[in-house]
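ugh finaly. both done.
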Amino acid sequence: MDGQQRVGVLVALPLVLQELGEDPARLIAGAGIDPELLHNPENSLTFVELGRLLEACVTATGCEHFGLLVGQRSTTESLGLVGRLMRNAPTLKDALLDLCTNQKRYVRGAVAYLVVQDEIAFLGYAVHHPAMLAIDQLSDGAIAVGFNIISELSGTAPDEALLARRAPGNLAPYRQFYGSTPRFDAQQNALAFPASLLTHPVRGADRELRKTLEKLVASYWAVEQPSVAQTVTRLLRARIVFPNTSLETVATELSMHPRTLNRRLQAEGKSFRDLMSEARFQGARQLLEGTRMEVTEIALALGYAEPSSFTHAFHKWSEMTPSEWRKHGNAGLDRLQ
């Protein structure tokens, strides 16, 4: 499954390339994509195409913060109908849930999530497409989009940006955009801010217009809804680095009894245990490849009480230890395919 990503803010990508001295049409076409596709924010790219394009952009420009440069040009307008819905939400929480709930309609392969823990809210973004390239660039862009959205809707910027990638050589663009240095080598790509901000009313929201927009959003992307297994995969990828992620908590999120969730997964030939393992494996691979986190830190982040248990599980998944995977990079993934 290639997954898909709405073009949205990517309409700014050709301009960023031009500003960096590249020929946008030539480079985009060279990545196997019709340049015209990026002229309409309602078009879509597959995740394979998007990863290939972002990787080509970084290679050609030598710009390690390319994703940030694209994402920082966003507003709620970049999100189309969902952005309009968000601008007419009663509170910031309602607006962010609009984004997280409707994202599955036009994005397959990544998940936006809102989690509150210990009075801190996290608006995060996690890729679960198995063959995505340039995850650091896509995530940089997504977190920049989230930063602009929260600032626009609440009038207050998030406290901190967490990025699950190694720090690039030039930190100045990040400091300039976020107002401080993000926390690199983090266990998730997310924005952290006080949970109390979620109750902040969205200025200028129109209740009646929102009712109309809710119907438009539902009908505009009248696509096949994700299966139960796909829905659980999205939830697990979003919550895998948070404590107490279990069958019970996921079932509660889906308003199901745990036994009902198990039965529905079994009907699709899946099990919760296997989906949890897949989510941990994806999370582990991305943290090993993208960050400088120690293996022990990654094990704890993914819910393992002992690093040895994590190493055993990772070897079972990949026939390699975590350290070997980090050393060989994507060669490990090629071995599995």
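ok and the 2nd:
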Amino acid sequence: MHESGPSTEPQHPIGVAAERSGLTPDVLRVWERRYRAVRPQRSEGGQRLYSDEDIERLRLLRLATLPGRRISQVVKLSTKELARLAEEDTTARSRAGLDEPVPLRVAGEGVEQALARVRAYDTVGLEWLLRRMAAVLGLTPFIEAVAAPLLCRVGDEWHAGRMTTGQEHLTTSLVRRVVIAAIPGVEAPADAPRLVVATPAGERHEVGALFAAAAAIADGWRVTYLGADLPAREIAHVAAATGARGVALSVVSPREPGPILDEIRALRAALPAERFLIVGGAGAAGLAAKLREAGIAVAERLPDLRALKALLPDTSPTARSGAWMCRRRR
């Protein structure tokens, strides 16, 4: 009797694909966008549609990453090779007397586990979990699918009075530590374009800038990271001294947007025309119109840093998309 393989007809929306593959929609989008894990079709309305074959491949990729492999290591394998690898893993676990893959599930479950550790003030357990997820997912997917959503959830819980300021601060501190620790494992080529990342004077929230810097490094930029609250003249000086091709700024929640907008405009004026300036973060949305008027690119969320390279000479500023930081932050 002839058995056909999974259907190649695009028919399932992302929610169905996520449920059947065992991934969260966030992780699915990251794997699709950054690693081209699958290539779904689009409906007439622009909705992603996945085939049974796509879903089976995603399911196998998830299984391949559970024991600790990075998605970047296994995404190049064919679906048949992934199925063989999953079978080998199952056999190895059975021989070792293990019923399930070790610790990590998927990013969505990881975020829930991290929240439980935050509520319990379990700093050791939280840091271990975050480091594990960063190792398995890779730096940029970890930021987009775990770190940023976790900080958003903690921020929401703080606003609702269900978490303390101490819990919010310990989460931010550990996320920052894990991201910084993961950066040395990503090396840009010697001839990579240079980028300066900072927050402008008056913006003291650093994490969004750190996320942008880490993602840029992972995408092949040589980054000079300056941290928070830098005057325009200092940022411009560093950009000139390092030969940077551009500057990326993070703005989260300016209480007085006027002075920060003035700083950003001053930086644009201080930079040569051939150096791009892009501003992102939750606070960028409220400044977008005025920034674009000044010839400054705006990313309300973390740019796809492959697209960011399109801002190198001979391109005009434009909006970019992708996860940067949640809108609701203190």
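summary for the 2nd one i guess: Strands lie at 41-42, 48-49, 194-200, 222-230, 246-250, 276-280, 297-299.
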